[in-house]
Design brief:
Length: 139
DNA sequence: GCCAACGTTGGC
DNA sequence: GCCAACGTTGGC
């Protein structure tokens, strides 16, 4: 089981929208970056991920679960682009801001802190634990 | 709203 | 195959 982080601008696709989808989940479409796509290809059913609001909010707001393996992105005919489906698991009791991550020495190697432009990224088990702790949420 | 960082495209 | 130009992301 691996851990991931998904970035989305709240104006485009928010945690509230994702949560409202419930068990059905939603395609994580629109990714047009090879590195992000490759990460999605490695995902397995049951992998967990953080849902992060980029740009305006800059905070981790919830936990999602991968519920469909990588498949063609329905928003394009270009067969290069694939995506997984994810469903909301639970909301953080307290959002974890980017600033909090940057301030915590245990998260100094986190991709979120070091590679601002990667929209789908891996999270180590240790980082997962720390961020959940900061969010006062069960890992 | 600005701009740095980075990824992609396309001319050569 | 290199690299300049361009477009996009996302922090500030």
């Amino acid at each position: 089981m691996r851990y991931w982080l998904f970035k989305s601008e709240a104006e485009v696709w928010s945690w509230d929208q994702q949560f409202a989808k419930g068990e059905v989940g939603e395609e994580w479409n629109g990714v047009r970056n090879y590195q992000a796509r490759n990460n999605m290809r490695e995902m397995q059913i049951g992998d967990l991920g953080f849902f992060y609001h980029s740009r305006a909010e800059k905070e981790v707001v919830g936990i999602v679960e991968v519920c469909a393996l990588a498949h063609p992105d329905s928003t394009t005919d270009d067969e290069r682009w694939e995506c997984v489906d994810i469903k909301a698991v639970r909301s953080f009791n307290k959002p974890v801001t980017l600033a909090m991550c940057k301030d915590d020495p245990r998260l100094s190697d986190m991709v979120l802190v070091n590679n601002t432009r990667l929209s789908v990224q891996p999270v180590s088990p240790e980082e997962w634990k720390v961020v959940c702790e900061l969010g006062e949420t069960n890992p």
